[in-house]
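Colleagues,

For the teaching module next term, I've prepared a clean inverse folding example: a structure given as tokens, and then the sequence designed for it. I'd like students to try predicting residues themselves before seeing the answer, so please don't circulate the second half yet.
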């Protein structure tokens, strides 16, 4: 009883802590989305558009103007996911609001509502266009997030299964290499399966299936290697830390359920560095924006994968060295101390 009671108590306390953190993170972040500083592009020198944006900014902080030198640069910013919309003058009179709902439908809806009301009050006609609409099979724009959740979940579950079955720390570097290769093969298969499911099977996205498979494989591999590295150093207790990073904080902070500007301040920038957020952003870039705006999330996932590989290899080397030191015999004639 003395052996199992402390361990059982620690596991119960740990699961209670994770569940509490899960509730606090999800409810705290998502129960009342409150948009702040939604970026909207405007061209320097476009006086009608600038006047409307200045008027909106004095009344509310929902929208944040982002100034560009030219109309072309502003549209490039829209396609690169720097802004959710661009407000500019129409040569025929009035204003045009060019949006990209694929970036975040809820965000573009709020921007459209705010600027429609502002132009109506100013007596200026407004035309709204959607330059990058969501797919008909993804009307709420949530498929990239759900896809990211499945890929990340598959990655760290594969790592956890290998840890439970074979030990969290491989016995030597050769075995560590085999584990990395196994996770890579698993990630490649999962990426292909995910791309086929949302493509030819469900017809959510009927294009860029090979690219989507590559993104899925990278995301699953990055999640698996992060989990393997943490578990390699901390054992199965590291699984709790992995769940905290990839699920409890990772999912609400990914910007996939609600756009980052709708989240509390401490979660707002998390999508730029956590694995679920990077995966969600990269899927959107591939499916909707022809890889534009994908450099940062691609680099981030590659970095996480590399850090995971290095972390597992160093953990393996460290534990192998400790095992060798414990098994090394002492000086001749010396007997180990009693007790």
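(Answer key — instructors only)
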């Amino acid at each position: 009883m003395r052996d199992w009671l402390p361990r059982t108590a620690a596991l119960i306390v740990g699961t209670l802590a994770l569940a509490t953190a899960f509730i606090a993170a999800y409810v705290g972040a998502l129960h009342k989305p409150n948009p702040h500083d939604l970026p909207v592009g405007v061209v320097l020198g476009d006086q009608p558009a600038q006047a409307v944006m200045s008027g909106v900014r004095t009344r509310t902080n929902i929208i944040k103007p982002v100034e560009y030198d030219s109309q072309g640069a502003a549209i490039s910013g829209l396609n690169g996911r720097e802004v959710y919309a661009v407000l500019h003058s129409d040569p025929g009179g009035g204003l045009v609001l060019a949006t990209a709902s694929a970036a975040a439908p809820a965000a573009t809806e709020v921007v459209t509502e705010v600027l429609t009301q502002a132009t109506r009050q100013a007596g200026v006609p407004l035309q709204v266009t959607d330059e990058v609409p969501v797919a008909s099979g993804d009307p709420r724009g949530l498929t990239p997030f759900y896809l990211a959740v499945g890929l990340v979940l598959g990655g760290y579950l594969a790592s956890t299964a290998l840890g439970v079955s074979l030990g969290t720390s491989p016995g030597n570097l050769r075995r560590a290499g085999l584990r990395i290769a196994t996770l890579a093969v698993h990630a490649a298969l999962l990426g292909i399966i995910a791309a086929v499911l949302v493509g030819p099977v469900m017809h959510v996205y009927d294009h860029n299936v090979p690219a989507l498979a590559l993104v899925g494989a990278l995301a699953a591999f990055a999640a698996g290697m992060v989990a393997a590295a943490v578990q390699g150093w901390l054992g199965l207790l590291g699984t709790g830390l992995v769940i905290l990073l990839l699920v409890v904080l990772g999912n609400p902070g990914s910007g996939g359920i609600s756009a980052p500007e709708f989240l509390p301040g401490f979660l707002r920038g998390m999508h730029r560095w956590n694995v679920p957020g990077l995966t969600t952003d990269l899927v959107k870039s591939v499916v909707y924006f022809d890889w534009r705006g994908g450099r940062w999330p691609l680099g981030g996932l590659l970095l996480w994968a590399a850090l995971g590989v290095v972390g597992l290899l160093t953990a393996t080397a460290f534990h192998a060295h400790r095992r060798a030191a414990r098994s090394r015999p002492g000086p001749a004639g010396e007997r180990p101390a009693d007790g």
